[in-house]
Amino acid sequence: MATETAATTRGYTATKDQLHKRLRRIEGQVRGVQRMVDDDRPCPDILVQIAAIEAALDKVALGLLDGHVKHCVAHADADEREGQMGELMEAMARFMRR
């Protein structure tokens, strides 16, 4: 893995505000599920909300993947590209096993 400096940019750097907004929305959805449990809401209603949270997290993950490929992998020099691809494949394998 290449050494990184404090000035390193990530694939999501340009859209960091948008990413934070999405994550805060997801956080609110999780709190909503907690309230649903506290209010003894029916299981199917809670499960629908959990599915929505999972879909939102998947969308965040795909956005991060897209940014990583377009920024980090595409702009890596030839020596770094192999390592970047290996890290990407490992991350994707972990993501898909969940």
Features:
mainly alpha, 3 helices, 98 residues
Structural commentary:
- By secondary structure, this protein is an all-alpha fold.
- The chain has helices at residues 16-38, 43-73, 78-97.
- It has 3 helices and no strands.
| Percentage of β-strand residues | under 5%
State the major sheet.
none
Rounded mean pLDDT is: 87
Instruction: Note the overall shape.
Output: elongated
Q: Tell me the name of the CATH homologous superfamily.
A: Metal-sensitive repressor, helix protomer
Low-confidence blocks of residues:
none
Note the topology.
Elements: H1 16-38, H2 43-73, H3 78-97
Provide a brief overview of the structure.
This protein is mainly α and 98 residues long. Helices cover 76% and strands 0% of the residues.
